[in-house]
Design goal:
about 450 residues
Amino acid sequence: MDGPREPNPKMFDLKRLSVLASLVIACCAWLVGGCATSKPSAPTLRSLAERSPKVPVVLVPGITGSELRDRRTGELIWGLGKQIVTPHDGGYELVRPLTDPIDGAAAHVEAGEVLSTMHLGPLKKTIYGPIPEMLENHGYVPGDFRAPAPEADLFTFAYDWRGDNIFAARTLRERLEALADHRGDGYAVDLICQSNGAHICRYLLKYGAESLEQAESGNARPSERFRIRKIILVGTSNGGSMRILREVHRGRKYLPLVGRVMQPEVLFSFPAVFQDLPAHIDEPFVDAEGRPVDLPLFEADTWVQKVWSVFQPEAQARMAEQPDLFGDREQQIDYLRRALDRAQRLHRLLATDVPHFGDTRYYSLQNGYTPTPHLAIVGARPGELWFTDDKHLKDRPYLTSLISRPGDGHATVDSQGALSPQELAAFTLPPYLVHGGHFELILEPNSLRRLLDFLDQP
């Protein structure tokens, strides 16, 4: 019998090359996907640049668009490029304990700044940076909500994007009201709302960021210390997104092959995630033959019985090792019930006209060219959910077409247009269509130019 073989150096070289190639592919994917594309060329609009004084502008980003910092240590837990790749902890440092109040601040996490760029070694990925830079080039003066200079008229709103959107709206209202100390009561402001930022801005406009109960009773009123002149919606899922269900069920990975995985239970702990589930679809599920399935998405019993998300055995086993974060099964069901109820009520309020809407004008940048998840297929086995782009649906084009709609990859055109009649009547111009994914769309050159046009509109 032959003795042990010596390692083949060529084989090891091939393995190293394979790992290196995987890393290069992943990094390239990171550069072209995610929150934004490479830095675009900034357009100019002389009429806006020469206008003085200017109406203040606030950029409200989407989920993952703000730094998150641990108050105890000062350490960033979100906002560094390396956090897309490591640590391989399932994203647990981002978990929002299920015992934290859904409608309140997180115990140990605070928002830092809106993300301008992210770095991964020598690679740099542009996020929101070109927008403030473009506006500065048009004469806007950047300011800080915490200590605004009298001449400042350009602000970014960083918030804990894991938490409740009504709480974020309340925080934004407080900052805009504090700005009235420098600008005078009743000053006008323009809001650029990307993705999840639209839920925040629309609630602020309609209900002044009062509680759900006050809004439902008809007692919520917009603030009198400022007025929202324009709301510019960019890549917004106003009716919610089926892609959210896919991620909270399967988890999220930012890079192929080497990327850090955010496990389903991590996303499950974010109230904001449930507030972006698709509420604009009456029958969001079909079976493997394409027949409608009567399943209420916003009822916790559905998730438990169908073994979705954290109720899958693997997730239950992981969570059992972290009871300080996730509690027991009954606490998880109670949290889910409250989060789904709050999300559904929020959607109902946003879809409702209000008596104190005012003269706010709406503008929108959308993509209606990309096949986007619209429905989900419920399989026969526990925990089985299929979505657009699943590989085993490639040989079933009928099902693929049935569960897909045009959109931006995250939000369908129907969801982008799921606004109240009052809001639809507030559009000054028709929605402007731009080629680009949900996250990339805001920095497409055509989008940047249209942002200037919208701000320049009288």
